[in-house]
């Protein structure tokens, strides 16, 4: 682990293993922390916040964050190899993600130097009013196993740029790339205690981090059910939380769209990360006049999708990661068939991996309705359901017929329609004519059961600060 500026084992000496989802080998041994380790990490972060220069010198913070970005840039291949082996995502996808991780810290560094205090005009001319953005102190960050490197950067970069100190708890399913990032943090120039990483199980380490009275704010990315537990811990001590939770993204394909591009985007939308993404485009809404044409193109692309070893750059979809994931996805596929959806492609194990416990074919249903289980619940696997619509209002109504509200995609060549529909969708992030397009400058977050608060961008920076209002009574000038 990484605590108070140095490598650390769990106080108990306990460890757990990380299993490669593809070859099923136990390839890494990781410290299994307990409450005493969380206590040590939080104490280190609190001490760094109170006694180091970190929160008081934004220009120096920016310098360290940029140095960290350079180190991350130089280790993209290594970090990608570690993460791909840890969670089963394709090396091509993970490498592309890590290629942009350093940019999050560069962007945050620029904000740290540039965000000004404000001087609002009050009602009294003899009072000078200032509003400052100040850090919270210690921020506890819990990240998931599906995209740990990028998701860590989205929250850690603005948290650090704002002058906070952090304690990170990666998922026990895939913690290794986060630990490798922590090694680099040790060389970037962070004062000891500013960055801490503690590994272990959510029920122990995560719970201890949520309940710790010296953790001033929590950032959590994960399932909606787990988010409710985190929110409960936070509510018990009135701690603020940023949460990005589940999703049920819709892709809205209109007849005037570039149908070739839309079909490719739809496939990418639900097979990237083997569908294990909160932005997985698991609902495909297609205008009925082009319904069959779009479905045929999607199926044609699925038939050529290269499934296999995630370490092979030619592979386009690898195995599922977590224990029981394939069985969970299979139950949803069975539910889709039982409720009357038409299985158009997939539904089983891909050729050559019939006996592998972590592989599922990319699966497409047609004839679905919004009320079906596969259209309402987050599957977290490579499964999508096609729903037809007749006009724009119906498309928007179907897209909004979910308790989730993270993201959506619109496929159209009509600029006016793109803006109308984007405004009408009840989600935090809208993509137009692209499956997904992340950037450190873009705020990311959802609404409803997809959580609240934002990471990345200027909004993400503001989430990691709180306003402090200062009023100074000006003395009148001396009389003669």
Strand-helix topology:
Blueprint: E1 2-3, E2 6-7, E3 15-19, E4 26-31, H1 35-51, H2 58-74, H3 76-87, H4 91-99, H5 101-114, E5 127-135, E6 138-143, H6 148-161, E7 165-170, H7 176-188, E8 195-197, H8 202-211, E9 217-221, H9 224-236, E10 241-244, E11 250-253, H10 259-271, E12 283-287, H11 291-304, H12 325-338, E13 342-345, E14 363-366, H13 373-376, E15 383-389, H14 392-399, E16 404-405, E17 407-411, H15 415-424, E18 429-432, E19 447-448, E20 451-452, H16 457-463, E21 465-473
Helix pairs in contact: 1-8, 2-5, 2-7, 3-4, 3-7, 5-6, 6-16, 8-9, 10-11
Please give the largest β-sheet.
Answer: 7 strands, mixed
Strand order of the largest sheet: 13-14-15-12-11-17-18
Overall helicity: 25-40%
Low-confidence stretches: none
Strand fraction:
15-25%
Rg over alpha carbons = 24 Å
DSSP summary, beta strand count: 21
The secondary structure category is: alpha/beta
What overall geometry do the principal axes of the alpha carbons give? globular
Q: What average pLDDT do the residues reach?
A: 95
Straight-line distance between termini: 67 Å
Number of helices in the DSSP assignment: 16
Write structural notes for this entry.
The chain is of the alpha/beta class and 480 residues long. The chain is 39% helix and 20% strand. The strands form six sheets. Strands 13-14-15-12-11-17-18 form a seven-stranded mixed β-sheet, with helices on both faces. Helix 1 packs parallel to helix 8 and helix 5 packs parallel to helix 6. The longest helix is centred in the N-terminal third of the chain and has 17 residues. The protein starts with a strand and ends in a 7-residue tail after the last strand.
